[in-house]
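Allow me, if you will, to draw on your knowledge of protein folds for a short while. A protein sequence and the structure tokens that stand for its backbone fold form the material at issue. I would ask you to consider whether the tokens describe a fold that such a sequence might reasonably adopt. Thank you for your consideration; the sequence and its tokens are set out here:
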Amino acid sequence: MFFMQTLSLLQIAPTLAKFFEVHLNSQARPVEQILKFAYSRKPVPKMVVLVVIDSLDFRFYTDFADNLREIHELVKGDGLLFECETVSSHTTPAIGSILTGLKPEEHMILTNDDVGKSKIKSIMEILEDGGQKTAAAIETKGAKPLWGRISYVFAVDDREDIFEYDELIKSHTISVLKKQDLRLVFSHLRTIDRFAHRGGDLSVAAKVTNENIRAIANAVGERNGLLFICGDHEAHLKDRKAKQASHGEAPATVPLIVCCP
């Protein structure tokens, strides 16, 4: 089901906070359609997996629909699809906003180093404070500051082989779902972003990402969990940026998919 109203990535964390019944300091409003969807499941999911697909903007989502078939099928199979405004053109501040519900100038998590320095707590840390266990599967520089702050941290070193990198992210995401006391998992897939920056075959990147999401979705389904999938910012494609500059096009939006696989 596609909701025509445009949301903001800032609304993800407040929605998760309301679902898990914890307090989050954010001016952004929870998305009531998502909460109604979650509460309508029988039984109501106790666990959520949030996957951010780097550089998955709405245009990429539609242009490569054939290669992202699994994600589209999740929507068709009684899932929700929203179009979201972005808050940054860079990954770290965008993810900071996704996890805090605050604008980059408010949370000031602009680089990996800022993750450890910021006094702003993410939704994962807030859940941990309330005794609810969380996990993250992310790049090592972003993961290190989370050690000791959340229950399960899987750090993956950056590498030239981005397929191997995302394979490890996927594997860690699936493996941690075996923890029965887990409430929220965050993971970050990067193949599309790497191919966009380097001018690679985007259909290949989309197919690889599609397979990783398929595996994660199957694992979430086995746990009767709730799956969030979203982009973080527009794809950094040279030809598109040139057209935007010459035609004054509006900033790209990103998809947010919510489903119970």
User: Anything to note?
Assistant: Residues 2-259 form a domain with the Alkaline Phosphatase, subunit A fold (CATH 3.40.720.10). Residues 202-222 form the longest helix (21 residues). The chain has a mean pLDDT of 92.
